[in-house]
């Protein structure tokens, strides 16, 4: 699989990142043998970036990834995350340090390559509210201490929240990585959208990241599964998934996703998931695309889609017409 330079890190990462989250579910609920098989297949087929978080299955994902890797990180990149609750804000440095130490224990590693903040910025979510000034004044210094201690090589954050805050953090110089929400239904990280487009306007964050030497990880590229075109969920995955970025609900996202089916019928891709994956990798500003999986077969299909390469100019033009129809 093709690899890309990842921001200013000097790392070369595969165009496809192995997501270990709960939306897909393999690494939180799957059988150990299936997990080991998928990770081994990924490594054998050139996928060298594995992303997890303390929140995925309450540490289960990290523990399973640690078991499967068994300390062998030769040639691969591992990232994990910390999410801060309101109760943590009185001792951010302590909360961050404790979280990473626990993550490293579960991962059976003495350091990770990238340690990422896993909070919504400037908006309340289930953890509470974290604002950009708290990140700049308290979170970054706490992260820097862990970097100085050799527990992480690079710092990153999940680019969820107010666009002004996200742009500010990308430009602040402390972060080498950003997880960016980008898909057929939420295209604004990659291109300008009209003011009435029914999704967050991330104001071409991918280009801002590229210009500032920040590696970008495209996340929710299948819109939590909605871009399969079906509301059915795999038993290992989350039973319900709230959309991120789109100003709607999952069922509406599925209905909108199905409006791209004519492109599949016209032969631009073999399936809606393939169309969705190849859409995001058509943007040269995106470093890598993360996919969450329930099965090895889903991983293999995603890898095949990435290896097919970007969509044609004709397909991209037709996609823009469909997207324009959402802004009414």
In short:
The chain is α/β, with parallel strands linked by helices and 328 residues long. It has 12 helices and 10 strands. It starts with a strand and ends with a helix.
Radius of gyration of CA atoms, rounded to a whole number? 19 Å
Q: What global shape is seen?
A: globular
Low-confidence stretches: none
Mean of residue pLDDT values:
96
Q: Could you give a short account of the major beta sheet?
A: 8 strands, parallel, barrel
Number of helices: 12
String of helices and strands: EEEHHEHEHEHEHEHEHHHEHH
Kindly report the spatial arrangement of strands forming the biggest sheet: 3-4-5-6-7-8-9-10
Query: What is the β-strand count?
Result: 10
Distance between the termini: 40 Å
SSE-based structural type:
alpha/beta
Helical percent range?
Answer: 25-40%
Strand content: 5-15%
What does this structure look like?
With about 325 residues, the protein is of the alpha/beta class. The protein contains twelve helices and ten strands. The strands form two sheets. It has an eight-stranded parallel β-barrel, surrounded by six helices. Strands 1-2 form a two-stranded antiparallel ribbon. Helix 6 links the parallel strand 7 and strand 8. Helix 3 packs across helix 4, helix 4 packs across helix 5 and helix 10 crosses helix 11. The radius of gyration is 19 Å and the shape is globular.
SSE diagram, text form:
Elements (H helix, E strand, L loop, with lengths): L2 E3 L6 E3 L1 E4 L6 H4 L2 H13 L4 E3 L8 H10 L7 E6 L9 H16 L4 E6 L14 H17 L3 E8 L3 H9 L5 E5 L23 H7 L3 E5 L30 H8 L3 H5 L6 H10 L6 E5 L3 H13 L4 H14 L2
Parallel strand pairs: 3-4, 3-10, 4-5, 5-6, 6-7, 7-8, 8-9, 9-10
Antiparallel strand pairs: 1-2
């Amino acid at each position: 699989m093709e690899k890309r330079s990842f921001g200013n890190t000097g790392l070369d990462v595969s165009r496809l990142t192995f997501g270990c989250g709960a939306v897909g579910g393999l690494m939180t609920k799957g059988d150990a043998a299936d997990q080991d098989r998928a990770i081994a297949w990924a490594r054998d087929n050139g996928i060298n970036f594995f992303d997890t978080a303390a929140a995925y299955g309450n540490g289960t994902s990290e523990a399973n990834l640690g078991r499967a890797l068994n300390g062998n990180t030769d040639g691969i990149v591992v990232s994990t995350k910390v999410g801060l609750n309101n109760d943590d804000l009185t001792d951010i440095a302590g909360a961050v340090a404790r979280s990473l130490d626990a993550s490293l224990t579960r991962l059976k590693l003495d350091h990770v390559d990238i340690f990422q903040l896993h909070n919504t910025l400037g908006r309340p979510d289930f953890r509470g509210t974290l604002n950009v000034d708290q990140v700049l004044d308290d979170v970054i210094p706490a992260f820097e201490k862990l970097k100085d201690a050799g527990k992480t090589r690079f710092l990153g954050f999940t680019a969820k929240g107010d666009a002004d805050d996200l742009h500010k953090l990308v430009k602040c110089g402390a972060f080498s990585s950003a997880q960016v929400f980008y898909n057929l239904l939420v295209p604004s990280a990659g291109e300008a959208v009209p003011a009435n487009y029914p999704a967050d306007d991330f104001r071409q964050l991918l280009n801002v990241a590229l210009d500032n030497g920040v590696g970008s990880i495209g996340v929710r590229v299948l819109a939590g599964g909605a871009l399969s075109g079906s509301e059915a969920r795999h038993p290992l995955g989350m039973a319900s998934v709230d959309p991120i970025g789109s100003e709607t609900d999952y069922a509406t996202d599925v209905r909108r996703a199905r409006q791209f089916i004519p492109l599949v019928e016209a032969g631009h891709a073999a399936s809606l998931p393939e169309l969705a994956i190849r859409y995001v990798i058509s943007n040269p500003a995106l470093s890598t695309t993360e996919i969450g999986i329930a099965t090895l077969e889903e991983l293999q299909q995603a890898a095949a889609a990435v290896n097919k390469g970007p969509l044609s100019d004709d397909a991209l033009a037709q996609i823009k017409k469909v997207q324009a129809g959402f802004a009414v």
